Amino acid sequence: MIQLLLSFPPSVNHYWGQRGNHRFLGKRGKEFRREVAEACLEANVDTLHGRLAVHVALFPPDRRKRDVDNILKPLLDACEHAGCFVDDSQIDELHIIRQPVRKGGACTILILEL
User: How many CB atoms lie within 10 A of CB 2?
Assistant: First the structure.
């Protein structure tokens, strides 16, 4: 089981950058990946190899309209790169809950092997 408290993830539009046909990890994407990697080190995370269930609670920083699916992909990508799991294709169950606004925003993620 892995449980992390993170800042509010950037959306897909801010996680990736694009110049012409070249797609790259943007500044906010690099910062978020680094944050997730540090949180995994602090939590002494071991890579999960089995089938997974993921529970995400999103606490937006303000009342702006946001698509939760636009937030999910950067979060899972950062967790994969931090070594929480081998590949996001391992995920069989996915639960996302938008919580009330929290100053500064936050995100909790719980990853369980099934």
Answer: 22
3 within 8 A of 109, measured Cβ to Cβ = yes
The CA distance from 103 to 114, in Å, is: 34
pTM value > 0.85 = yes
At residue 32's C-alpha, the angle toward residues 78 and 14, to 5°, is 95
Give the residue from 3, 73, 87, 84 showing the smallest Cα distance to 37.
Answer: 84
User: Measured between alpha carbons, how far is residue 31 from residues 34, 68, 71, 112 in Å?
Assistant: 5, 20, 15, 25
pLDDT digits (tens, 9 = 90+) for 8-51: 999 988 888 888 888 888 999 999 999 999 999 999 999 999 99
Quote helix, strand, coil % in the chain, to nearest 5: 30, 35, 35
